[in-house]
């Protein structure tokens, strides 16, 4: 219920700003959640706010840079808006600053009036099946980071010249991205910002088939129409789905009737499964009602097959439509398995964390003192936004409304306490502390230098940009001194 | 500062802005001229927030929108009248939309709070608007599958929803009224509504 709230928040801001000094806010994380939070704060507070945005990477924008697929350049247009925010005189970017290693959260909280945790989800849900630790089994996140040039996955141990079949577990948009990057004619990727080391591998790739394994059916698929249409309509990919797997229950039919999105997903898959693709050189197999049960490895502990259990759907009053095993199994020979079953946030020492849900316990963005704590049992001055707050779901734009809610909470709290911000030292104090520890901070100007370097290299090589994909390369191109380069 | 206030003020006069708004803008600028800039800023900020205008170019740089073409470029172009209604607070802003421009552009040209993350490339749904009148809705050429696919993900999707960047101003749409939906809690891409906990 934001409408009446926003009106009362506006009046609180009005009454408090008449005697306010500047509000100093620190946002940990420079992805969409962080930037949209800054956006809302600037709108609400005008000249009365100063914002510092931190990121452990030298590069800003979070998953817009390291998650959005290379062949989805338009989706990255939002960075233009983020750039305008970062260039605002009220905002400062502090890249290559790792909260926990270079500075503690406690130290930050002493320097600012409010801290917003917006550092997303950098880990993964596990399958928890035998053989999961075999070589050749990776989280989709790691694979995506690899082809997007994230410095932490530069050395992902994958060799596509030895892979013919891939199993992707999951059927959300990230799973589709993985399948598409593996199956798309590599010539189409050369002009994108795909990491060069990934491009090289794809040029020598032997991958011919991807099995997309989904626990439930097409009507439960979490992907969206635009992405699915793109994948199944590629002329070079033959799409397969067994008719038995496309049978729909009455409940499914009702859902499709009620929701256009579900209808579209179903139609796209069933139409693609029967369409002829004479020019196709690679195959995409949808495997619905197939739950990964075991990963089978060879003597060198290298994955050679995935075993799946067939499932059927049961209506659960609490969890909705769930898949239960039938005791029947199938095996697909594969040399690479990508788990795309959900990201998961990492806890930050000193901050309450709900390990089951993978989020920081909160009420409308106010961090709570513990899991299950009452909505008024808050940690003062500490807030959360984005995936860390609500779980790893939604699209870039989802963070707009999320940030609105968190900032509304902040505005209420700040006005309520009526504390003129104790001259919060903010950025000056942060800079001093980081300098005393020889942290090589990448400010926005340094990022723009790095950015220009990547774009120039791209121009020389006929692509949108050529990313720096290693830590030292990034810092050097950003023009920062390298007293202590932290290898991850 | 006065330099940026005056053109904006003039534009509002020309658009027939309500008297209240003009008085507000005038008072802000005169306070500024008097030199008490921070008091003027705060008072102006209060007025702005009362009117739920996200930002006025006069006081600080716009953060969320790219300013479109200046009014000089549009002089001589035929225009229609379009009203943007904010669902957050019910405020209405009527503007002149040059024929041929899409609503996202028009909104940004007039400092209206309409997000456009992907900058009109049909890769997001942040410029979602709801056409108030069904008759007007049917005068807009039908959406493509691509637009519908993005609309499926928009918050507060309705029977007369469109993406602002896909609605082009035409003569037939003179008097169009669109609502900019307020935030909802639907964070799930597949339409699932989370249970409160």
Automatic annotation (TrEMBL), chain A:
This is NADPH:adrenodoxin oxidoreductase, mitochondrial. One of its GO terms (molecular function) is oxidoreductase activity. It comes from Tetradesmus obliquus (Green alga). Gene3D superfamilies: FAD/NAD(P)-binding domain, NAD(P)-binding Rossmann-like Domain. It is an enzyme of class 1 (oxidoreductase). InterPro entries: FAD/NAD-bd_sf, FAD/NAD-binding_dom, Ferredox_Rdtase, Ferredox_Rdtase_adrenod. Its cofactor is FAD. NADP(+) binds at residues 215-216, 227, 394. Residues 25-185 form the FAD/NAD(P)-binding domain. It comes from the Eukaryota.
UniProtKB/TrEMBL annotation, chain B:
It comes from the Eukaryota. GO terms for cellular component: mitochondrion. One of its GO terms (biological process) is P450-containing electron transport chain. GO terms for molecular function: 2 iron, 2 sulfur cluster binding; electron transfer activity; metal ion binding. This is 2Fe-2S ferredoxin. Its cofactor is [2Fe-2S] cluster. Residues 39-68 have a biased composition (Low complexity). Belongs to the adrenodoxin/putidaredoxin family. Residues 80-184 form the 2Fe-2S ferredoxin-type domain. Residues 39-77 are annotated as: Disordered. Residues 1-25 form the signal peptide. The keyword Metal-binding applies. Keywords: 2Fe-2S, Electron transport, Iron, Iron-sulfur, Metal-binding, Signal, Transport. InterPro entries: 2Fe-2S_ferredoxin-like_sf, 2Fe-2S_ferredoxin-type, Adrenodoxin-like, Adrenodoxin_Fe-S_BS, Beta-grasp_dom_sf.
């Amino acid at each position: 219920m934001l409408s009446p709230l926003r009106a009362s928040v506006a009046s609180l801001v009005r009454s408090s700003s008449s005697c306010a000094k500047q509000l100093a806010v620190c946002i940990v994380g420079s992805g969409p959640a962080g930037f949209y939070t800054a956006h809302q704060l600037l709108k609400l507070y005008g000249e009365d706010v100063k914002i510092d945005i931190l990121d452990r990477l030298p590069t800003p924008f979070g998953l817009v840079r390291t998650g959005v697929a290379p062949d989805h350049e338009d989706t990255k247009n939002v960075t233009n808006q983020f750039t305008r925010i970062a260039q605002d005189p009220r905002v400062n970017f502090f890249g290559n600053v790792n909260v926990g290693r270079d500075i503690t959260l406690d130290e930050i909280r002493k320097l600012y009036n409010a801290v917003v945790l917006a550092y997303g989800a950098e880990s993964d849900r596990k399958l928890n099946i035998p053989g999961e630790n075999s070589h050749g089994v990776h989280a989709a996140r790691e694979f995506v980071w690899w082809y997007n040039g994230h410095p932490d996955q530069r050395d992902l141990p994958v060799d596509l010249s030895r892979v013919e079949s891939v199993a992707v577990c999951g059927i959300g948009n990230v799973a589709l991205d993985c399948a598409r990057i593996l199956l798309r004619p590599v010539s189409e990727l050369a002009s994108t910002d795909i990491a060069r080391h990934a491009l090289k591998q794809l040029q020598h790739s032997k991958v011919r088939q991807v099995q997309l394994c989904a626990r439930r059916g097409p009507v439960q698929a979490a992907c969206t129409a635009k992405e699915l249409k793109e994948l199944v309509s590629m002329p070079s990919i033959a799409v397969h789905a067994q008719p038995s797997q496309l049978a729909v229950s009455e409940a499914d039919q009702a859902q499709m009737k009620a929701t256009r999105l579900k209808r579209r997903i179903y139609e796209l898959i069933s139409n693609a499964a029967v369409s002829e693709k004479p020019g196709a050189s690679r195959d995409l197999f949808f495997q619905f009602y197939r739950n990964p049960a075991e990963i089978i490895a060879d003597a060198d502990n290298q994955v050679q097959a995935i075993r799946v259990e067939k499932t059927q759907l049961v209506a659960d009053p609490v969890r909705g439509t769930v898949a239960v095993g039938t005791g029947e199994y199938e095996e697909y020979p594969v040399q690479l398995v990508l788990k795309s079953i959900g990201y998961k946030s990492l806890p930050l020492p000193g901050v309450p964390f709900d390990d089951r849900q993978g989020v920081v316990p909160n009420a409308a963005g106010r961090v709570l003192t513990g899991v299950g704590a009452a909505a008024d049992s808050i940690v003062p001055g500490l807030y959360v936004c984005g995936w860390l707050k609500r779980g790893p779901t939604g699209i870039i734009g989802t963070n707009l409304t999320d940030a609105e809610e968190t900032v509304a909470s902040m505005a209420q709290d700040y006005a309520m306490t009526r504390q003129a911000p104790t001259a919060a030292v903010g950025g000056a104090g942060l800079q001093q502390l980081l300098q005393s520890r020889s942290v090589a901070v990448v400010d926005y100007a340094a990022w723009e230098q790095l950015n220009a370097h990547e774009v120039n290299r791209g121009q020389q090589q006929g692509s949108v940009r050529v990313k720096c994909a290693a830590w030292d390369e990034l810092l050097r191109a950003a023009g920062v001194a390298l007293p202590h380069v932290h290898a991850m | 500062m006065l330099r940026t206030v005056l053109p904006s003020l003039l534009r509002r006069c020309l658009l027939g802005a309500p008297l209240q708004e003009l008085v507000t803008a005038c008072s802000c600028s005169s306070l500024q001229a008097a030199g008490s800039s921070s008091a003027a800023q705060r008072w102006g900020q209060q007025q702005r927030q009362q009117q739920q205008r996200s930002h006025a170019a006069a006081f600080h740089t716009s953060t969320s929108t790219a300013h479109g073409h200046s009014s000089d470029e549009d002089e001589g172009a035929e225009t229609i009248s379009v009203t943007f209604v904010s669902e957050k607070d019910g405020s209405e802003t009527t503007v002149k939309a040059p024929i041929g421009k899409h609503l996202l552009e028009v909104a940004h040209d007039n400092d209206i709070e309409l997000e456009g993350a992907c900058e009109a490339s049909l890769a997001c749904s942040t410029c979602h608007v709801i056409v108030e009148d069904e008759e007007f809705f049917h005068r807009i050429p039908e959406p493509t599958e691509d637009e519908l696919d993005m609309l499926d993900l928009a918050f507060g999707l309705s029977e007369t929803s469109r993406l602002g960047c896909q609605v082009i101003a035409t003569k037939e749409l003179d008097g169009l009224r669109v609502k900019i939906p307020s935030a909802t809690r639907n964070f799930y891409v597949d339409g699932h509504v989370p249970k409160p906990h």
